[in-house]
Amino acid sequence: MEEIITSLQNWEAVRTKPDLLTELFMNKLGFELDMNLFPEKKALHAYAAVKNGELGFYVISEANDVDSSPEVLSSNCYWYPTVMAFEEGGQEIPEAEANLRLSTWKETFPEWIQQVVTMPFGMYQTFHIPTTDLRKEKYAALFALKYDIITPDVKAADLVLMNDAGVYYDTVLSGPPFKDQQKYYILSLI
Known about the structure:
- The chain has four helices and nine strands.
- It is an alpha+beta fold.
- The longest helix is centred in the middle third of the chain and has 22 residues, at 95-116.
- The radius of gyration is 16 Å and the shape is globular.
- Residues 87-92 have low confidence and may be disordered.
């Protein structure tokens, strides 16, 4: 658990520093998420982290992100480093919308980082990933940006999930802000 906490603290140390964030995200498309590791139909929490100088996410089921022993937390929390490439895919949200969000990320993330770190909530700490429609398979969790009614001048961080059949899923929310911060127990440890 100590390694997880240190990695989350490393993220906290850089989430207000646009130059370091830009460097960490450079040429990164997202991470691979294996739903076989998690309980079905339970939302996931993907915590942004920096481990050994590498950007990644610790992912844990909301069912396990509770006050429990460090051993139990560690054994249910999986490290997913960011990657530079995925195989191509198709659509569940309209392909045009998914591609717009993905290309907006690729083309504007350095400028977006400069803007978002000055916002009240700053750069995200986590993503909330509902799993109701997800199957026990692997998904590409792709970095994206989408329109946000709350901050129309600054796009909202997004993850677009894509399965091996090329179907896109769009249900992810970044945090902060949190609907219920008490459900993110691991944040209380950093």
